[in-house]
Specification:
about 55 residues, mainly alpha, elongated
Length: about 55
């Protein structure tokens, strides 16, 4: 891959990764403090971590 391809890929993934990072802590707090929202938080948590694969 050329350097420009890497730069395009980096730019493409920059926003989704940043959003995932910002969502991670609130989702973890909800997962461990709100029993009624635990299933939703669990799915969001898994969704966030799949961004990093």
């Amino acid at each position: 891959m050329s350097n420009s391809s890497f730069q395009k890929a980096e730019k493409f993934f920059e926003v989704p990764v940043m959003v995932s990072v910002l969502m991670l802590i609130p989702v973890l707090v909800i997962e461990y403090t709100q029993q009624t929202l635990e299933p939703v938080a669990l799915y969001l948590n898994w969704g966030i971590w799949t961004v990093f694969l």
